[in-house]
Automatic annotation (TrEMBL):
Name of the protein in question: BlaI/MecI/CopY family transcriptional regulator
Stored InterPro entries: BlaI_family, WH-like_DNA-bd_sf, WH_DNA-bd_sf
UniProt GO MF annotations: DNA binding
Keywords: DNA-binding, Transcription, Transcription regulation
Family classification: Belongs to the BlaI transcriptional regulatory family.
Extent of the signal sequence: none
Keyword DNA-binding: yes
Amino acid sequence: MKKLTQKEEEIMYLFWEKGPMFVKELKEFYTEQKLHYNTLSTIVRSLEEKGFIDHEQFGNTYRYFAAVTKQEYSKKTLGRVVKKYFDNSYENVVSLLVEDENLSLEELKKLIEEIENSKK
């Protein structure tokens, strides 16, 4: 799975949250940024080339929809971060979260319990 630019990721979140859309509908979410229709259309086509979205045709226009789920993307992105910054060790990630107190001991115990239950 290819990496997304910040703007591509932002647009994917809109598809995940709002569902299938035409580019003109997507443009409505960018009233403050004033993104041009052609710019959005180019980004959407790029996302389609990368395999993140697909389309269905309605006359001479396309309605686009997510071809990759948010969960699939999250897993791949986390995997890249773990590989790049944590020596490919999820244990190192959890250790950092515990050390920085982003993950309490109770949350860690609950997580361990969930993992043990899922393996049964």
